[in-house]
Hints:
Keywords: ATP-binding, Helicase, Hydrolase, Nucleotide-binding, Nucleus, Ribosome biogenesis, RNA-binding. Its main location: nucleus. This is RNA helicase. Its EC number is 3.6.4.13. This protein folds into 2 domains: 263 residues, Rossmann fold (3-Layer(aba) Sandwich); 266 residues, 3-Layer(aba) Sandwich (Rossmann fold), CATH 3.40.50. The protein is built from 21 helices and 18 strands. It is an alpha/beta fold. The protein starts with a strand and ends in a 25-residue tail after the last helix. Helix 3 packs across helix 4 and helix 12 packs across helix 19. The radius of gyration is 28 Å and the shape is globular.
Amino acid sequence: xxxxxxxxxxxxxxxxxxxxxxxxxxxxxxxxxxxxxxxxxxxxxxxxxxxxxxxxxxxxxxxxxxxxxxxxxxxxxxxxxxxxxxxxxxxxxxxxxxxxxxxxxxxxxxxxxxxxxxxxxxxxxxxxxxxxxxxxxxxxxxxxxxxxxxxxxxxxxxxxxxxxxxxxxxxxxxxxxxxxxxxxxxxxxxxxxxxxxxxxxxxxxxxxxxxxxxxxxxxxxxxxxxxxxxxxxxxxxxxxxxxxxxxxxxxxxxxxxxxxxxxxxxxxxxxxxxxxxxxxxxxxxxxxxxxxxxxxxxxxxxxxxxxxxxxxxxxxxxxxxxxxxxxxxxxxxxxxxxxxxxxxxxxxxxxxxxxxxxxxxxxxxxxxxxxxxxxxxxxxxxxxxxxxxxxxxxxxxxxxxxxxxxxxxxxxxxxxxxxxxxxxxxxxxxxxxxxxxxxxxxxxxxxxxxxxxxxxxxxxxxxxxxxxxxxxxxxxxxxxxxxxxxxxxxxxxxxxxxxxxxxxxxxxxxxxxxxxxxxxxxxxxxxxxxxxxxxxxxxxxxxxxxxxxxxxxxxxxxxxxxxxxxxxxxxxxxxxxxxxxxxxxxxxxxxxxxxxxxxxxxxxxxxxxxxxxxxxxxxxxxxxxxxxxxxxxxxxxxxxxxxxxxxxxxxxxxxxxxxx
Length: 660
């Protein structure tokens, strides 16, 4: 590969672009020259510094959305791209964005402050995704020096620090619409010279209550801004967003890049299994699966709520199975650090609570519900309030929308006080999502311990595995109606509709050409484990769950703001704040960590082991980092040596060394 300096003394790659035939793309006439796919990143004519970062990340071939989306963006077209989860959409907009900033900044003196301005803006629905995009920017600008300045305005830090950084007018801003609008209203962030706007996970932005903020941003945009919308699905929310930034009165229309047809032709790399089980046998299944290593590699366990997170963690902890919890109750820095440690392979099991499915509806969804209630009441008359509330209950919103008087009655949609006090509901972080947006890497299996409430959420959950051409599997537990609530300590209301939700999931997956297979698991061969399993499950009480939850939250609050910097300066103290450390809320019995041979069914481990049709994604065996830490701890590395023989005052010998 040859390089030469351009007119601005910036190295460029000189290489003939290799073009191949691509599938048809809906486009306008202006973008006709930019629709061909390429086989290498060098053929995309990106800046040499970006190509060097790409090689450092060991990326060889661009994905379809990258090879077809990057030329369109570099050409200056407005773009609306739809590609499945894990297809590389982040790099598809990030690389041309960084390339454009490098071109704009080339030849501009660093001391010319009047020319420094924010020219690119990336909007994301959640704080986790903002942190993730910022990390990607850091990776791919590693060889750009100080040419590109960027700032994440959604991270948790003192407002004065963020304001000081925004005063320097960074080239690229990443954040949620709510945070961006807040800084624009304070006249700290100026977008009067903005040239490129990206909305990532565009179909989710409206669902997280950012509609008014997006309207404010759209109204404040200067003319000529290039707009790029990325999404995993094409839904009505996306149409609303498109009409907002590309109104019908305007002649500007986006180029639509839909990869549904090419994705349907790809060979399936995800195998989907379901298991019919009782509520308490869910715990027996995960115990045997992890203890007998029926599934090897990294596993994400999705549960219904936060309490369920700690119940599963405490249960596995008694058998020496380490895991980490992840939920929107934890501070953002703690959540992001947990994901990083999981991606690095520090631990292999992460338990994620997808509260948005249970206790935290999006603001737009709740608003639509209340509108339907109001219409139903108006049609049925004021006397039909109780009937309407029974069929379609009004969910209270968080923040300013939830008003309550001193008597506990809530404000109804019709403007009347309801005599029935509604139950208190803990709301999740409105800018947090666990089933979508977060980049979990090299996940072997997604285990739906609790079935989600919608087929769309199921699709997003299983999208955490089998990414970028890798193989993976999903395993989902569901409770038949005749088994619901037979074991009250482990029962949750969400399981009552498991069969109905499963039918909807199967119908949607069949429409995509996928199939859910029954996992043939003989429960009769696990009867020998029931005594141990029952003893451990009884030890996980509600008090133990509450104590573990409180202890984890206190630790996260005290340390999450310092995690990144503190661990860099004090790596030895990491074990004191490990996310997968034992909570000690229940009594750990050492003998439960081992499986004696007499508990195994006839035929031993091979009797319950079954090939599930996937390939392990990393080397099997004991966690190397944890093994080295334990070895150093046993040697007393880094500590002052103690002992009589090592005390210089006690080791003096008047007769001489070696003499007695």
